[in-house]
Structures are given as C-alpha cells and as structure tokens.
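User: Can you fold this complex?
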Amino acid sequence: MKLLAFLLMTASVLAEAPITLVIHGGAGISREELSAEKEAAARAALEESLRAGFKVLQSGGSSLDAVGMAIVVLEDSPSFNAGRGAVLTSAGAVEMDASIMDGATLKAGAVAGVQGVRNPIRLARAVMDHTPHVMLIGNGAEDFARERKLPFEPPDYFIIPERVRQLERAKEKAAKKQASIESLPPSFKAGTVGAVALDKAGHLAAGTSTGGMTNKRAGRVGDSPVIGAGTYADDDLVAVSCTGHGEYFIRCAVAHDVAARMRYQNATVGDATRAIIHERLKKMGGDGGLIALDAKGNVATPFNTPGMFHGIIRADGTIRIAIFEE
Amino acid sequence: MKLLAFLLMTASVLAEAPITLVIHGGAGISREELSAEKEAAARAALEESLRAGFKVLQSGGSSLDAVGMAIVVLEDSPSFNAGRGAVLTSAGAVEMDASIMDGATLKAGAVAGVQGVRNPIRLARAVMDHTPHVMLIGNGAEDFARERKLPFEPPDYFIIPERVRQLERAKEKAAKKQASIESLPPSFKAGTVGAVALDKAGHLAAGTSTGGMTNKRAGRVGDSPVIGAGTYADDDLVAVSCTGHGEYFIRCAVAHDVAARMRYQNATVGDATRAIIHERLKKMGGDGGLIALDAKGNVATPFNTPGMFHGIIRADGTIRIAIFEE
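Assistant: Here's the predicted assembly.
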C-alpha cells in the first residue's frame, strides 16, 4: 500500500508542470547607486514576492494568480518604481501603468495613467476578468477601479522622499541642458516590476507594473501596459515581462518578438531573448532587460544594463535572487 | 543628347521605389447597412484621401507625410469613425486614438483617449517628432497638442447625428440583454481609418486613427494607438495598419506579427497577412482586416468581415477603391 501510494504520488507529480516563478524589480541599477541598505531592502522584498507567488502555485493556484500576488508585494514595497514608491511626473504626481496576460486564453488586461489605485496590477486583472476590453486608461480606468471596489490610497502613500529628491535633481538637470532622458542616472528610469509564472496545469502568465520615468510628461505611457511590448504570454511559447527604456521596447514590440522568434524560428527562450536584448536593442541604444519563462520551466533573464533586480523560485522551492548577473 | 537625357531619366526612375499608397476606412461594414448615398460619400472621401497622399509621394515627399495627409482627409470626413464622425462613448463623448510609425527609423508616435483635437494623427506625428516618447494619453496628450498649436474643435464638430442614433440603439440593446460587443451591428465598431505608404526613397510608413467602439466605456483603448497591434512599419519588411475588433488585434499583436512572419519565416506580405487574418484571428473570433505594403510595392488587403473600405494608388496614378472584395 505504501508503495502504491508513493507511485501514485510520483505519477501525479510527474504529470504536473514544473511550477516556476520569475520576478524582476527593474533594470538599470548600477553598483554605485546601490547602498548596502537599499540592496538588503530590495532583496528582502524580492524574496517576499517570490514566496507569496510560490505559495499560490504550490497550492495548485493559477499562474495568473501567482503573477498578480508576486507583483502586489513589489507594488507595496517602496524599493521599486511601482505602486508605493513610484517615480514622479514633471507635475509631481504618480501616474501608474500595469498589464497582465493569460497564456492559456491570450486574454489580457492593461491600465495606463492611473492615479490613486493602490495596486494597478489588480486593476489590470479586473479589466481582463470583468470587461470585454483589454486596455483602460486615466479617469475611465479609475472609475472602473471604484466600481470593482479596489483600494485607493492618498498621494502621501505613494510618494516617498527619495522620489521627490530624484524629481528635483531631474528638473535641475533638465534646466541646465536639454532634458534628454539619456542624461539621467539609470535609477531614474529603473524599478519597473514584473513576474512570469508556470502553474501545475502547465499554464503561463505574465504581468508588469510601473510608475514610468522620473520627470516624465503627464500622460506619457511606456511599454509596461502595452501588450506585446512590455508583457506577453502564450502557453505554446513563453511568458515575458520587460523593463527598461520603454520607447525602444514599444518600437521593437519586444515581448511579442520573443514569442515570434520562438514560434517562427524555433528559437529557444535563451536564444530568442539574447537576440533581442543583447543584439537588436543594444545596437539601437535601447537599455533594459526582461524575464522569460517557457512551458517546460526554462528561464532567461537577460539585461544589457549594469544590473536588473530579479529572482527565481523553482518547483523544489530553491530561490535565487540576483542583481548584477543574469 | 535626347537619348542620353532619356536614359538618365529612365535610370533615375528605375532607381526610385514604386511609390504606392494604400488606405482603409475600416472593416465591418455589411452590404445591408450601406446605402447608395453612404457608399458614394465613402468612395469620394477615399479617392480624395488617395489623391492627397499621392501628391505628397509624387513630389518626392516622405511616406510619413503621405500617410499623415491621407489620414487627415479621412479624419475630416464624417463617413468614417475617426476625427469628425467618430463614434460616441457610453458617456456620449468622442475619445480618439491614433498612431504613426516610421519604417526607416522605427520611431513612432501614438495618442489615446484624446478629446477635441481635430486631427489625432497629426498629434501622434508631433509626439514622434517633438518628444522623446512614443505614447501620450488623455489630458497630457491634449496639453501637448495645445503646446504644438494643433487645431481643436468643439464637440459639435465631431458629433454627427448618425452616431447619436447609434449610441441610443447600442444602449437599448445593452439594456435588453447583456451588453455584449458581439451583439452590435458591425457598423457600430467599424470605420477606423489607416494608411500605409512607400516613398521614392524606398521608405515605408504606417498610420491608424479611430474613435473606437460605439458605447465603449470611457477610457477604453483598442489596438489603433498600440504600436505592434494596430500599426507597424519597418523598411526591411512591411508597413501595416489594422481595423477590427481591437481587443483581438492587441492579444495577437497583429501588425507586428505580420512583420515577424516576414522576418523569421520569409513569408510574403500576402501569405503573412492571410495567415493572421483568415486563419489565426478567424479561429479566435477576431473580426477585422488590415492593409499591408512591402518595400517592393506588394500590397495585401485581407479582411474576414463582409467588407472593408479600402483603396490603392500605384506609381502610375491608377486608383482602385473596393469595399467587399480584397
């Protein structure tokens, strides 16, 4: 009997996909900008996010729920540029973008330019689940958040002192020379968060959430809420979440390009992501990175910036958190 | 001398790309909904648009300028769902989206959820030319339009009686049964406009402009302003502008998918567009079509709906306008 039970258990484990969760806390950070204190806080938040998302996967939950849970933890952490701790627009406001995609159905939800919503990733999920639409923006998206009774927070909740100082410095720099985005320290545009997950049923999901770029013009939207640019998921291929200089990621439709290279060239997740991040984007001057996960649990975390906060938790519960090595 | 002049002229003509402009006025129209009067007005506007854009190409202007010019004519015409004549949101407002992309540089500009701006395609072009960004939305985009001194119009200019009636009917239908988008007559979601062009220098460009869907939720954004979904252009491959049920076009990143099939599978523009419109989207239930043009002047205009307003003008000035045949 014991043997039979063991065999049955083994068979059921074998039939399950190797649950995996990969997260990122943004590309662009450099060693010089990262104090020991900041690093410790970021690592702790990444670990908390991995454990929260993994618990969902372990208990048989969906990759969509795991992605949402992992991102909520990162949005709630002031260490990253999403939710609490998001960067400020030139008007000193927090305008957030997020998206999520279901690899099983190709359904997706996205929000852009939302203010006051505590967890934009939950709003993106609600758009996917409770509207016939993919993308809602601005006041319309906020009204929908109220309809769904999602929590709102006052500006004080989102705005942390470091972001106010960053905005001041960005404005000083902008006043001195032409306000080129390239001239800003990497951390001014870093910190987008994202997650990709594979659940027991073999379904993939991807999600991304961001406050965008410091001193951005009101209404500017980067790649994070753009399905195909910042986020993509397809069970047959891959789940992808991007971070970096969003304009380049939109122009190259980076997340969908990874899927396309895998679909049409039979590229591996490693080859497909290397080609777009280290070759194509690098040549164009597009700074950034991404996390990608295929349906067999293969992971790629390429970035062409000095660092990218990221972490992986595997089916056996082993965790790897890294910043400066892929 | 005459022979030499003739040879030189021939050589210079041969060195030039075969200037071509393709436009659409939206997929979804059915024969029953199209009165002779409406058809005549739409055909006249399409011809005017083709001639205006072609004049730019003929005089050596850029494909970007030709695309912008062709779309301005269609935005100004009340026959289509873009600019004047755009459909109404559930709140009775006009919220417009547009995007444009330069195949030579992969630079792009897009706006979403803008009100009052007479020609959203010109605003998208201004975002591309005069900001480091790709996408601006809502009030931020409108403020930028004022900065650029682009013309605004009052609601009366945009709102035509037919759209008010369509909104009333859409609301009645929504009140009776569940407000499913699928239950609306095709014309309620038809009428997006777009253009793709090839100039003498061999550069491609694409642009798209829309009012979205009748009775849409405020803040809903479809594929038209999403680079990679509704619009894409890459000189090495193709220029694409889409029209249809935007949510499906976003999920499949249709415009970029055409480019990806050509890049990674060496598909022709005909094969690539047929595969996505007549196979993939059709299977998913995604209604719509697209116009596509490659750098050799090959054109494809597939749609899986009863009709799609579209037109082509070739280097020799011949015009073809069609609605119910590709």
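Chain A has a mean pLDDT of 93. DSSP finds ten helices and 13 strands in chain A.
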